[in-house]
């Protein structure tokens, strides 16, 4: 079995995307990097644990993508530009095939966003992956959860609900034969972090968050932090053709998926009425779909309307899978 240093050398000392702002990367006690003038550093950490966030036998390439994409998504939510990351890997054994596939997918995504792996830690134990990522955000321009105001419009990027449907497929082998099953499973793992959209929203959005626990829970964070309420128009929620097929074209069920699906890594953000035109031009070059789904209101209630009628759906919140067992 390879030792810790052999693993680092073989799989994580990747020299293709060397950023000029990295003075020292893997190999010493710390990495040393340079921070541009007038920028602030945004920092975030996420952990994926086998058996909690993914099944132990899951495709290592997809696990790597999910681990890094969830971190990048946190930066995107604040409008930050990713720069550097570190990777703490706990492995039950040095499985070369697993490491090859994991590290290849990790660097594919890192290189795409010009993210430099500057260090980490490698230990033996139950499989878990912790990534800390750092990015730049212009001074006093980060998109926070606390800026939503009464009258602002609520938007989401992309389509919602696929990740939860994909999780259903992962957890119920019977659903694998569903025509949309493979695609939904893939979407659960292979989200697209909305970095360009986040950057485009920096001077336009009044608040923002990425959807990791489900639209309802994450929008609640914005409402609580901003001291406001909201109305959502459920028929506006963007859902994919595959999700509609998966729920047998039961729209109510599709919208319930959209409201509670976790690990979507789409952005939910608010836009003052006077910025709606700027939003169009800011988002035009990002190629990202975005949809208005409701409006911020006074108070603290989150009310749901379906075809103009108030509904009181009892929605199960998102839970990390396997946690219920
Ligand atoms: P120390 O014991 O001083 O913390 P380590 O022996 O853990 O250092 O790691 C040696 C070097 O390899 C350090 O620069 C560390 O950042 C890097 N490193 C360790 N594990 C990883 C990993 N999984 N990915 C990237 N770099 C790593
Ligand atoms: Mg160490």
Describe the 3D structure.
The chain is an alpha+beta fold and 325 residues long. It has two domains: 4-138, PurM-like, N-terminal domain (60s Ribosomal Protein L30, Chain: A), CATH 3.30.1330; 145-311, Alpha-Beta Complex (Phosphoribosyl-aminoimidazole Synthetase, Chain A, domain 2), CATH 3.90.650.10. It is 33% helix and 25% strand. The protein has ten helices and 13 strands. The chain has helices at 4-12, 60-78, 96-112, 162-171, 181-189, 195-200, 215-226, 241-246, 251-260, 276-284, and strands spanning 22-24, 32-33, 39-49, 81-91, 116-124, 128-138, 153-157, 207-210, 229-233, 267-271, 290-297, 302-306, 309-311. It has a seven-stranded mixed sheet with strand order 8-10-7-11-9-12-13, with helices on both faces. β1 (22-24) and β2 (32-33) form a beta hairpin. α4 packs across α5 (181-189). It is globular, with a radius of gyration of 20 Å. The protein binds adenosine-5'-diphosphate and magnesium ion. Adenosine-5'-diphosphate (ADP) is lined by residues 8, 12, 26-29, 87, 89, 117, 119-122.
Write the SSE topology.
Elements (H helix, E strand, L loop, with lengths): L3 H9 L9 E3 L7 E2 L5 E11 L10 H19 L2 E11 L4 H17 L3 E9 L3 E11 L14 E5 L4 H10 L9 H9 L5 H6 L6 E4 L4 H12 L2 E5 L7 H6 L4 H10 L6 E5 L4 H9 L5 E8 L4 E5 L2 E3 L14
Parallel strand pairs: 4-5, 9-12
Antiparallel strand pairs: 1-2, 3-6, 4-6, 7-10, 7-11, 8-10, 9-11, 12-13
Helix pairs in contact: 2-3, 4-5
Bound molecules: adenosine-5'-diphosphate and magnesium ion.
